[in-house]
Amino acid sequence: MLNKVAIVGGGIGGLTAALALLRHGIDVEVYEQAPELKELGAGLQISANGTRVLYALGLGSAIERVGVVVAGKEIRLWNSGQTWKLFDLGAVSVERYGFPYMMFHRGDLHGALVEAIAREKSGTLHLDHKCTGVAQSADSVRIEFDNGEIAHAPIVIGADGVQSKIRTILFGADRPEFTGIVAWRGLVPREKVPPGVKMDVGTNWIGPGAHVVHYPVRGGALLNFVGLLERDDWRVESWTVRGTIDEFANDFRGWHADVQAMIRCVDIPYKWALFARPPMPRWSKGRVTLLGDACHSMLPMLAQGAVMALEDGFVLARCLKTDTADPVAALARYEAARRERANKVVQGSAENGKRFHNPELAHAAGADAYVNREWREEKVKQRYEWLFTYDATSVAI
Ligand SMILES: Cc1cc2nc3c(=O)[nH]c(=O)nc-3n(C[C@H](O)[C@H](O)[C@H](O)COP(=O)(O)OP(=O)(O)OC[C@H]3O[C@@H](n4cnc5c(N)ncnc54)[C@H](O)[C@@H]3O)c2cc1C
C-alpha cells in the first residue's frame, strides 16, 4: 500500500499535487530548493479548467479573496491602440464552463496553496532542500539534497520546473532551443496606470514581432505587465534576472503612449529568454514521475503552463488514490491520461506566438483584416473551447 509520496519542487504544480494527495489521505513531503518563500513578481491567468481544480481542492473562498475576475479580454493594435473584443469572461465563463477565469499575483495563488497544505498537515513543506540526486530500488526511492539530508519514499514526483533535475536524472540532459523571444515582466501600481488602460479586462497588444499582455492582480491593486518580443541577444532562462527600464522601453519604442507609460511605471523589470523543448515520449520511470514545466514547458502565449500543472497535479493524485496497491501502474495511467493533452497545449502555445507577432500587423489596414480573420468567433472557439471545457476532476483515468 502507498503510504507516502515525496514531491521535489514547491511551485504551483508540486503544491497542487501535495494538497490533492493529502485530501485523499496519502501522506506527502514537499522538498523545495528555495531557502524562503519569496514573492516572484509575476501574474498568472488561470482559465476555468484551472479554477475548477482550485475549487475542487476547497480553495474557492481563498482565491476569491485575492484573485480578480475580469469582464473579458480585448486585443489592441501596437501603435494606434485600435481595440477589438477577444471574448467575454466574467459571468460568461461561469455560465459556459462552470468556473471563472481569474487573474492572480503568483505569490497570492502560491500562498493560498501553502496555507491550505499547512492546515492539512503542518511541516509538509521543507525549504532549503535542493535535490541533487534520486536512485530507485525495487520498492523505494532515495532522494539526496545539497544540505546533506537524505529522504526515502515509495513514489517521487519531480515538480521542479523548466530546468528539472529529476528529468535530467531520469532521461538525460535535454536540448532546449532558444525561441528568439524574450519576455519582460513587471508590476504597475494601480494609481500609476494610464487613464486609457482598462482595469476590468485582460488586454493583449499585438504588433509585428512583439506583443504585450496586461491584466489586474491582487484584487485590482496592481497591473501585471508582460512584454514579449523577438530579440536574439539574450539567452538566460530565469525567473529572477533583472533588466533596466530604459532597455525595456527601448525594446518597445514606437509602441502606443500607454504602453510606454506603463513600462516607465513598472516596479522591477525582469527578463526571461523563452526556450522550447520537444515533447517527451515518456514522463515516468519506475517509481518516479514528472509534472508541470518539468515535462511539458511551453511558451506563455496560451496562458496555460500553470493551468496544466494544476490539472497534472490533480489527475496524478486521483490516479495514486485509485491504485494505492500498485502505484507504479498508477503513474503509467496518469501519463496516459495527460500526455497527449499537454503536448497539444505546447503546440497551440507556439502557434499563438506566431499569430500575435504577425508582420501583417505593421499597418492599420492589414491589421484590421488580419484580426477580423484570425480572431473570428469560430476560430477563437476552436482554439480555446477544448482547453476550457476539460475536467480534471472527472476525466477518465
Ligand atoms: C512570462 C510568463 C508568463 C506566464 N503566464 C502564465 C499564465 O498567465 N497562466 C499560466 O497558466 N501559466 C503562465 N506561465 C507559465 C507558468 O509560470 C509555469 O508553467 C508554471 O509556473 C509551472 O509550474 P511548475 O510547478 O511546473 O514549475 P515552477 O513554478 O517553476 O516550480 C518549480 C519549483 O521547483 C523548485 N525546484 C527547482 N529545482 C529544484 C530542485 N533541484 N530541488 C528542489 N526544488 C527545486 C523551484 O524553486 C520552484 O519552486 C507563464 C510563464 C512565463 C515565463
C-alpha geometry: globular
Give the number of helices. Answer: 13
Number of strands: 18
Which structural class should the secondary elements be placed in? alpha/beta
Strand content: 25-35%
Taking all residues together, what is the mean pLDDT?
A: 94
Q: Level of helix content?
A: 25-40%
Q: Are any ligands bound, and if so which?
A: flavin-adenine dinucleotide
Q: How far apart are the termini?
A: 19 Å
Instruction: List the strand order in the largest sheet.
Output: 6-5-14-15-16-13-17
Which residue ranges are poorly predicted, with pLDDT under 50 across at least 5 consecutive positions? none
Rg (CA only):
21 Å
Biggest sheet: strands, sense, closure? Answer: 7 strands, mixed
Can you describe this structure?
- This protein is of the alpha/beta class and 397 residues long.
- The chain has helices at residues 12-23, 48-56, 60-66, 91-97, 106-120, 165-171, 245-251, 257-264, 293-296, 305-322, 327-356, 364-374, 377-388, and strands spanning 4-8, 27-31, 43-46, 68-69, 72-77, 83-88, 102-105, 125-126, 131-136, 141-145, 150-153, 155-158, 177-189, 201-207, 210-217, 222-230, 270-276, 288-290.
- Strands 6-5-14-15-16-13-17 form a seven-stranded mixed β-sheet.
- A hairpin with a 4-residue loop joins β15 and β16.
- α2 crosses α10 (305-322).
- The longest helix has 30 residues, at 327-356.
- The model has no long low-confidence stretch (mean pLDDT 94).
- The structure holds flavin-adenine dinucleotide (FAD).
- Flavin-adenine dinucleotide (FAD) binds at residues 8-14, 31-34, 44-45, 130-131, 159-162, 165, 183, 185, 226, 272, 292-294, 300, 303-307, 309.
